[in-house]
Amino acid sequence: MELYAGTLATGVVATVAMDLWGLARGRLFGIAPPDYGMVGRWIGHMARGRFRHEAIARAPAVPGERPLGWLFHYATGIAFAALLVAVAGPGWLAQPTLCAALAVGIVTVAAPFLVMQPAMGAGIAAARTPRPGAARLHSLVNHAVFGLGLYAGGLVARFLLPS
């Protein structure tokens, strides 16, 4: 049970860190945070059998798309925390290491580059966006921040859970 609770805590803390970074970069650099409503729209259309879109913003809205997108965002963060624990071993929760957390965080950028962005109409690694290089850099930084959040989440889990 501690393994599941620790993984859950790690994933939630890491995702919160990513979201706080999204707010901070908006205030510091004027970069809009991700619109998880579009993610919810994409997921909602999957239930209707449509997995790929020319441009997700032009797809018909799905009832509850914003909460669905946020739920998917946090579920994905928890799943990536589970990936970290699976790769590094359950002992990672007892002794979190920055290197493993950061590596997993950065590797997770493959999900938007190879799955989400192409399926939502942005192309592989945001190739069909107005500024692909900037979009790629933002994704990479976001996922590095997520990796730092995984480490912070591991420290929180270690502190909160009995050993």
How would you summarize the topology of this molecule?
Layout: H1 2-29, H2 36-46, H3 65-88, H4 91-94, H5 98-107, H6 110-119, H7 132-160
Helix pairs in contact: 1-3, 1-7, 2-3, 3-5, 5-7
Task: Provide a descriptive summary of the structure in words.
- The chain is mainly α.
- The chain has one domain (2-160).
- Helices cover 71% and strands 0% of the residues.
- It contains 7 helices and no strands.
- It has helices spanning 2-29, 36-46, 65-88, 91-94, 98-107, 110-119, 132-160.
- α1 (2-29) crosses α7, α2 packs across α3 and α3 crosses α5 (98-107).
- The longest helix has 29 residues, at 132-160.
- It is globular, with a radius of gyration of 16 Å.
- The mean pLDDT is 95.
Helix and strand sequence? HHHHHHH
Helix content: over 70%
| Helical run tally | 7
**In one word, what is the shape?**
globular
Multimeric state: single chain
Structure classification: mainly alpha
Q: Measured on Cα atoms, how large is the radius of gyration?
A: 16 Å
Q: Span from first to last CA?
A: 12 Å
Biggest sheet, in brief?
none
Low-confidence stretches: none
Averaged pLDDT, please?
A: 95
Instruction: Please provide the count of β strands.
Output: 0
